[in-house]
Amino acid sequence: MTSSKKNLRAVLTLNFIFLTISIFGQTAEIDRSHLKIQEQTDQIFDSLVNLRRDLHMYPEVSGNEQRTSIKIIEYLTALGLEVKTNIGGYGVVGILKGAKPGKKIAWRADMDAMPSKATDVVDFKSKNEGVRHICGHDVHTTVALGIANVLTHQKEDLEGTVYFVFQPSEENIKGALAMMDDGLFDIIEPEEMYAMHVTPFPAGTIATKPEEMFSDYKQLNLTFQKALDNETLIAFAKIK
Length: 240
Ligand SMILES: [Zn+2]
Hints:
Helix 1 (3-23) packs across helix 4. By secondary structure, this protein is α/β, with parallel strands linked by helices. The mean pLDDT is 86. The chain has one domain (3-199, 220-239): 3-Layer(aba) Sandwich (Aminopeptidase), CATH 3.40.630. It contains six helices and nine strands. It is 39% helix and 23% strand. The structure holds zinc ion. Zinc ion (ZN) binds at residues 135, 137, 170, 197. Zinc ion is lined by residues 135, 137, 170, 197.
C-alpha cells in the first residue's frame, strides 16, 4: 500500500471512531459496530482511493465546484440518501436517517481546490491547468462520502440522523456563510457538527501543538481501548 493510501485509511479510521461514539451508543455495541464499520470500510476502500484520485485530477477553485458537486450528488443518490443541492453555490447536503431514534449529527467537508502552479508530485496529476488540490479537500470530500457509504450500510443499527454537508468556497472563506444565508439550518437541524482537515503527517500519527490550532475549538479528552480484533484502537472522546 502506498503512503497516500495508508494516510487515507488512517483518516477514514480516525473519523469513524469519533463518529462511532456519537452514533452507536454504549461500549459493547460500539465494539460490534466498529467491526462492521471496518468490514465495510475495507470493501469500499479501493473505490474511495479511485474517487479521491479522480477529484484530484479535476480540481475546481472556489465558486466553480460544479463537477465536484455532480460527483457528490451522484454518490449520495446512489446510496439512497435524501439529497439537497445548490445551497450557497454548489453546496450539497445528504441526509441519512437511521432506523432508531437518536441525535442529529452533521459531518461537514469542503470541496474546493486552489490556484497553484506548483509541480504535482503524484501520478494522478491535475488536468486543470493552474488549479490543484494542495489543501487536501479532495480527501475531505472522499472521506465524507466514505462515511456516508459505511453508515448507510448500518442504517438498521443507526441511532438518529446524520447530515453530510459538502461546503463549497472554503478557500475564499465565503462558502460557510453562503450556505447559512441560503437556509442550510432550515434544511438541517444538527445538534452537533464535526469536520476535519488533513495534514501531511505519517499514517498512525496524532499530532498537536502548544496553544490554539484553530480560530474556534473545544477541548477533547481521548481514552484509547483495544477493539475485539486486539489490534485496532478505539478512541473514546469526551468534550470538556
Ligand atoms: Zn483546507
